[in-house]
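Batch manifest, entry 17 of 40.
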Amino acid sequence: MNILVWHVHGSWLTAFVQGGHDYLVPVIPGRGPDGMGRARTWDWPASVREVTPQELRRADIDLMVLQRPHEIALARNWTGRLPGIDVPTVYVEHNCPDGTAAGTRHPLADRDDIPVVHVTHFNRLMWDSGHAPTAVVEHGVPDPGPLWTGERARAAVVVNEPLRRGRVTGTDLLPAFAAVAPLDVFGMRTEGLARELGLPEDRCRTRDLPQGELHPAMARCLVYVHPVRWTSLGLSLLEAMALGMPVVALDTTEVREAVPEGAGVVSNRLDVLRTAVRDFLADHGHARRTGQAARDAALARYGLRRFLDDWELLMKEVTR
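Output type: structure tokens
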């Protein structure tokens, strides 16, 4: 099957393209957001092929996988075919509603020809999807291996653009965590974070690493902290668990489903979370045992094979 899919979320797409299909990924000069082409920091198979808008006019396409509302027009203009009408199409919704859950209608809510595939059950519940058929295919993560060593008495945090996104990603909570453990904050556009939060550099170190270096660097930290208030279930949380890291996370969105008892500490009480970080720092054995439980839980529920099998079933239904 030839699948047209844009490079939008690198971690999610890394899992998706491990299936047994050919993946057409648009590329444009300058590799902007609408044509990033193949990943440069993730390991993608040869079945992922870059295609220009001109090449898409002639390409055989069996399925379109859209992820942003404007991709409907992009797909129509670049391929000359109508998504959902001329070519079977699904829309992957990665995010929670930006507005109120009760009052936010999905961009595809008035269509019945393009199923909306949510990445969590929480997302499907929160979005008003109207007439659109909906499904859930939970995240899958390629197994990075049990890399955790916990050799550094620091807490890892992964967040992109923490200053711009602010309270959404819990940036304002970082000083409270930095008071009990020095932080290594990984992600894009993190420069100036310590200064903005009024933290010494040694209590809040920021690092923007290529994907191949990110997981080993995270795994050297003793604990993973997930301060996110309102985004979809972060793949960084699942990846940290798969690394064998003990996790401390806010009890929001789908986190409670992802982190079972014994695999970490999940709470909306900041004092409970801070105490959990202290406890892991004080007892390496406790951190190791909890991290192993986290890894087992992540691979059991969010393993790559389950993810690919779920997608295979959905694609067969959509294209038959």
